[in-house]
Amino acid sequence: MKVIAAIDIGGTGIKFGILTPQGEILKKHKRESQSHLGGKVLMENAVLGLSEILADFDMNDVIGIGIGTAGQVDHKKGVISFASEIIPGYTGTDVKGIFEKKFNKPVFVENDVNTAILGEMWKGAGAGNDIVLGITVGTGIGGAIILNGEVFHGATGSAGEFGHAVIQRDGPSCTCGGNGCWELYGSSTALIRFTRELLKDNKDSLMWKKYIKTLDDVNAKNIFDAAKEGDELMLSCVEKFSENIAAGLVSLVHTFNPQVIIIGGGVSNEGAYLIDKIDRYVRERAMPSYLKCLSIKAAALGNDAGITGACKLVINGLGL
What is the DSSP string of the chain? Predict the structure, then answer.
């Protein structure tokens, strides 16, 4: 039976999978990435982990290797074009070359967000559609664009940096050097920041009574938990957060006219509670003609999205 090897390389862990060309996961494995020790160690752990999971398979049955990885990726060369110092020395790493030399198989490399959303388009929340946008809401806002079933990269491979779309021209400064970027309003970081500001003068909130002792204890999960329990202040924060996410999505809807928008990241675990609010605000603001085929969904594949998308990289790359 022919199989595809898939790797999802993150800052803290590396996930491995052996899948059929139909996307069925036959076996999974994971290792710590030890990325703080640098790109060389990260690659050593990735190679070792793939060798371990492939031990039970005949290499003659392996069609190819798909890899989704943190960092900006030159997908044509399979090289890391830029990575922050969270992974020291990773910039310039020839991921494709390392794995092709070791395993003598075709290798396809892509950014991890693009890979995960590709997996969702194929087997998850976007299944059955080929014009799909994905956003990951966390420390910032990441993005991916799937057009006609494949990742759209833009002229220099950097398309999908949705978090740095400007939604407030005179807004606060962003780490990218601009002002008023979407992720300053619609990321989990933003939610926590403006919630902490409100809590300074609202000691009667359920957050103080049940969930936190200091403002440092505030996180996205306890904000949502308190809101669901009826805390009016936290509910107002969740509504503001949902509206801020929708503000950016409306522009994406008008730009790409997608069939599906998939929301991932930690907040996607809130499911319908959050998605329904975002959907309502988008439908209030977007032109009706764009809403006829649009659905907004939470990511569905969880930790398997990366390896599922990495499998699809091989299928697309080999034209299967």
Answer: --EEEEEEE-SSEEEEEEE-TT--EEEEEEEE--GGG-HHHHHHHHHHHHHHHHTTS-GGGEEEEEEEESSEEETTTTEEEE--TTSTT-TT-BHHHHHHHHH-S-EEEEEHHHHHHHHHHHHSTTTT-SEEEEEEESSSEEEEEEETTEE---SSS-TT-GGGSBS-TT--B-TTS-BSBTHHHHSHHHHHHHHHHHHTT-TTSHIIIII-SSGGG--HHHHHHHHHTT-HHHHHHHHHHHHHHHHHHHHHHHHH--SEEEEESGGGGGTHHHHHHHHHHHHHHS-GGGSSS-EEEE--SGGGHHHHHHHHHHHHHHT-
